Amino acid sequence: MLVHCSDRVRALLLAVLLLTCLVVPALAGPFEDSVAKFANDDFSDTEAAIGEVASSGNPLASTILSALQDGRLSADPDTKKIFVTRSDGKIIDAATGAAVDKLSDNVADVRVNNRLRRAIEAALGGLTLLSSDPAKRLAAAQSVFKSHEENLLPTVESALAKETNKSIKQALAEARAAIILFKSDASDSDKLDAIAVIKARGDQEALALLNDVGTDQPALVTKAASSAISSIQSNLAMWSMVQNAWYGLSLGSVLLLAAIGLAITFGVMGVINMAHGEMVMLGAYTTFVVQEMIRTRYPALFDYSLLIAVPLAFLVAGAIGVVIERTIIRFLYGRPLETLLATWGLSLVLQQAVRTMFGPTNREVGNPSWMSGAFELGQITITYNRLWILCFTLAVFAILLAMLRYTALGLEMRAVTQNRRMAASMGIATSRVDALTFGLGSGIAGIAGVALSQIDNVSPNLGQSYIIDSFMVVVFGGVGNLWGTLVGAFTLGIANKFLEPVAGAVLGKIAILVLIILFIQKRPRGLFALKGRAVEA
Amino acid sequence: MLTQLTHDIATMTRRRALAATAGLVLGLAASSPFSPAQAADDTIKVGVLHSLSGTMAISETTLKDTILFLIDEQNKKGGVLGKKLEAVVVDPASNWPLFAEKARELITKDKVAVVFGCWTSVSRKSVLPVFKELNNILFYPVQYEGEESERNVFYTGAAPNQQAIPAVDYLMKEEKVKRWVLEGTDYVYPRTTNKILEAYLKSKGVAPEDIMINYTPFGFSDWQTEVSKIKTFGSAGKKTAVVSTINGDANVPFYKELGNQGIKATDIPVVAFSVGEEELAGIDTKPLLGHLAAWNYFESIKTPANEKFIKEWQAYTKNPKRVTNDPMEAHYIGFNMWVKAVEKAGSTDPDKVIDALPGIETPNLTGGVAKMLPNHHITKPVFIGEIKGNGQFDVVWKTPGLVAGDAWSKELEGSKDLIGDWVGKKCGNWNTKTNKCGGQGS
Predict the structure, then answer these.
(1) Structural domain contains residue B1
(2) CA distances in angstroms from A333 to A78, A136, A409, B409, listed in the order given
(3) Does A456 touch chain B (CB under 8 A)?
(4) B334 lies in a domain?
(5) What top-level class would CATH report for the domain A239-536?
(6) Number of domains in chain B
(7) ipTM, 2 decimals?
């Protein structure tokens, strides 16, 4: 049913309501009537019910409203009964609190829209200010800050007097300040104090609140508000530089992660590997398959799915890399043009194979709980998934570097790429090392796919969007040098993120490409050029 | 099957001829004995021109399946004019020039009576000259930027006044939005739609500083800066909303970033024009609860016709989870309109069918009637849906009646005097001021 319910239907519903009241006069009090309104499936009735339930003082009120907020409130359209499915799966009758065994088939969720969600948030804010759960109290204080309902002032003040937790106390003081700022009969000095508290908060929500102070307030107050606004704005402008730097680091880590495998196959081995992006895609699909298995068989392990996917993705992409090297690339060493065309064709084959196997649509890869959400650092928001990807990238880079430096395979790889004939005469099986090196680069691309599945689409086209950027990073950093790739990725990431707010996303990207072209003109071998005889080889 | 085989043989023969450097002429001559035209007597051929590989495969593959499904259903009912329908599927591979080549192949070689196809505007523009030159019919099922009315094309998707404008109206009235972010992918559809929306918002008294327009490249995935820009823009003390014309794959990372940065629909709602059930199938929609989409069809709409369609579609695809979406409904309407027009004209001759189509009415899936208008657009209801936790939409608002599609936007200076009328005026861009055919788009 839609917002505009016809009058006839409304009259009918009213009649039904009246009838139910008449039939069970002993049970139906005003609270039951209010709750029954949820069954009407009409947004304005639901809004009225929210207000009535919130002000009823009934102990079930906050249970009902939080169930409505989370989509756990359902209604039986025939009997007009409302049920709460509690978060532990138990079902109760919303009006009486009595336990219910099973819901009948025609029971449907009570629908809400954004207007109602805001009403619920505001109502819950008032109800849970005195809750025993500190997290709920904090959320309540924050939602009161946003809604600044005047009639909540006494509740906020009594909560403030009782509160012992420092951060909640702070939030409550801010909520109180927000209410006073908009209270028509508050004194000017109280309002000035309130502005000082809000100014100290100093974030975008404080700014939004102060911007809302209308011209109808006393001149003293509006002046204080506008000076607070400009001080917050200049403070935020400074933070936005920090934020750009963080975004740059995070973009740089994604670029590095995508490019690091290519730094091996293209950088160290010199194979122009256009199928590199598809190795990343295979890694992402491995993550999808792992998550599907976990979802159907061992749902409890979901938070570890990425940890399980990392070694598997390395093995899958690495094995395919070895097969590609053995069957195609080894015949094409020293023929860059043919390699380019063959790997380009290969990338199309791999894409279409995945499209045939998994379908052309995006596959859902979920974020484990430790990779969702964000935290505030000063005035900037840092999202967990980006933070973990940065850590992960640096770890992969460190491990790769250590492997090349300290293991026998690493030594052989460096020997073969520096001087193949010499290495062969020292007894190194060069073709085996070639296969393993290519497998290593592909495997690392697969690992990158696991991380990128957290921030991008898992679709057959995943790899294509990274291939250009990857080549850009490796060429800019200097072919054959892992450190160059690291510095190149972060330089490009940070430069891009400082350009983006000024030039926009489209022009920013073009500007970066132009800068790279100019840079390559000046230094054709990139940031960190290899020196010595290896260059000529 | 047989024609598919002869088609293959024909192609092979031609390749061999080419390989023997006998030249194109000989190649065509060699293939002519196998020409599928001879098989065309007992079936009517229907061309399907949707990308099955490349970037657009994600959206277009479903539409190919939809047409095959509709043909299958129609054949069960006995076909059209006593003949069975036969689909000819080609793959233009998300490659715009290839669209034109494949369209030419469908019309000249396979002799199709009608083509259902294209998704992006650039692919439609690429095939337009082919359809004009060879005089065939294209049914185009996707919402688009308008500013076009062609004799050979029937637009069954929404024009801007059937999607964008009602969505903005909804936000203004129901959510009391005062500040607007127009966020789009950088290509023709978002740019034109945003131009129309900007003009519309200004005509409603929105100040220029309360409108922010941002464009991002195709497949953009690093949304951190853009989303924090939106957050900053939204902290000016006025209710803010985002109108998103972000296309395709870029949507998933955009919504993920919104969720991660904690922008909830109750604070800054996002209304999207290119996000449907199919796109949401790839994301966890819980953080997106309450963000909006404007379409002319939602899978969750409960009507007997829709329930039947979903049931048969899932049975046909043998996938009980397969979703339906707006462009699929557009194909459903377009296909049924074509069948009716062919039966009315008593022939599949494109000229006769083009003349028969305006005025044809067919029920849509949401309980209304779609009528083909003289400007080759159709009437549609407009729904606003909120994203639910299960990847479906909850309809929260709909237009009171059906909205007729405008080929030319009334908001733009250059096009407000133009109308498309292929019945009376026989002209796609008739200027009502000068009473002449021509002007923009001619």
Answers:
(1) yes
(2) 75, 64, 21, 58
(3) yes
(4) no
(5) mainly alpha
(6) 2
(7) 0.78
